[in-house]
Amino acid sequence: MKELQLKYGCNPNQKPSRIYMTEGELPIEVLNGRPGYINFLDAFNSWQLVKELKEATGLPAAASFKHVSPAGAAVGLPLSDTLKKVYFVDDLGVELSPIACAYARARGADRMSSYGDFVALSDTCDVATALLIKREVSDGVIAPDYTPEALEILKEKRKGTYNVIKMDVDYVPEAIERKQVYGITFEQGRNEVKLNDEALFANMPTQNKTFSEEAKRDLMIALITLKYTQSNSVCYVKDGQAIGIGAGQQSRIHCTRLAGNKADIWWLRQHPKVMNLPFVDKIRRADRDNTIDVYISDDYEDVLAEGTWQMFFKEKPEPLTREEKKAWIAQNTAVSLGSDAFFPFGDNIERAHKSGVQYIAQAGGSVRDDNVIETCDKYGIAMAFTGVRLFHH
């Protein structure tokens, strides 16, 4: 198949719409559904991300994509009982495979942003992963293959219209890529930079020059995730998964704050008060996720006010105070942080430190590098200058 006609482009008024190959055939097979223009943008960007994560770490990888940026990305490390409960996968009834763990982590990192996601899997989708996907609000999935049982489960989703795409793992794109803007064609070499080489971390200008093996893995995950995130972008990673992604901000400090706030929310969801919230029976998953986010925030009264809390809880919970939140966040440590370009000011490091960042990889090359290094040294943070910029538009 050389081309596939689509219903419309980014918006319903943008017709005609198609994807096509100028040479050869499309490297995909649509097994179910009718993916649209944005679905394919998410699918192809997310596939590249998980493919590179698998190559870099040797572990199965998954991504949860929304609007051409990842809401979450992770590798298939086992889940603790706490994370199983926080990600709401402790009741699945089947053992979680490595690829299922990867998706649970990718989807669970920022559940609000992942609502209505497009899923990418580096490995064959099995029954456990299909069952996780089936219970979430999602637009589609791309993977190298599907077990027959998993495919049947996915075909039942969204009344039989769920988008299931099979990707040709042997496909190699052209070295030159092109796109049009306002009728003008842009052309550039594909970004083929490899981010799985420890030489990336050789230039460490900070006093602390030690990256643990886990930190190296997590920094590679951060950088590969940033390679497919709309710029400017910053990514916090811990234990093999992105826990906060700040994408598409004009100011880098806004990226760092946005991603840091998401990382804090991820950590706060593991607070005993949050994990033991007495939700009413059969509360919808989206309502539960939204309620948790509001409960964690400074606007907690929006869900704890009299006449409101009864819609969500069996009994009124005690609020999570600012002091409790601050104390809990202070316990989050060993977080890694990647940036798709240099940090221009030390304020980024100040903000990152508040969310437990101890390891940083960034391009370097700012006229204020000395200020950034000095701020890292103040907190004992180990930082590498990679010399690699990862803008993605």
- Report strand %: 15-25%
**Order of secondary-structure elements:** EEEHEEHHHEHEHEEEHEEHHHHHEHEHE
Instruction: Please report the distance between the alpha carbons of the first and last residues.
Output: 28 Å
The helical percent reads 25-40%
The general outline is globular
Quaternary organization: single chain
How many β-strand stretches? 15
| Mean pLDDT across all amino acids | 96
Order of strands side by side in the largest beta sheet? Answer: 3-8-7-6-4-5
Category by helix and strand content:
alpha/beta
Radius of gyration: 21 Å
SSE map:
Layout: E1 3-5, E2 18-20, E3 28-32, H1 37-57, E4 61-66, E5 69-75, H2 81-86, H3 98-108, H4 111-114, E6 117-121, H5 127-134, E7 138-143, H6 148-155, E8 163-167, E9 176-181, E10 184-189, H7 213-227, E11 233-238, E12 241-247, H8 252-268, H9 272-275, H10 285-296, H11 301-304, H12 322-329, E13 335-339, H13 347-354, E14 357-362, H14 369-379, E15 382-385
Parallel strand pairs: 6-7, 7-8, 13-14, 14-15
Antiparallel strand pairs: 1-2, 3-8, 4-5, 4-6, 9-10, 11-12, 11-13
Helix pairs in contact: 1-7, 3-5, 5-6, 8-13, 13-14
Describe this structure in words.
This protein has 393 residues and is α/β, with parallel strands linked by helices. The protein has helices at residues 37-57, 81-86, 98-108, 111-114, 127-134, 148-155, 213-227, 252-268, 272-275, 285-296, 301-304, 322-329, 347-354, 369-379, and strands at 3-5, 18-20, 28-32, 61-66, 69-75, 117-121, 138-143, 163-167, 176-181, 184-189, 233-238, 241-247, 335-339, 357-362, 382-385. Helix 13 links the parallel strand 13 and strand 14 (357-362). Helix 3 (98-108) packs parallel to helix 5 (127-134), helix 5 runs parallel beside helix 6 and helix 13 packs parallel to helix 14 (369-379). The longest helix has 21 residues, at 37-57. The mean pLDDT is 96.
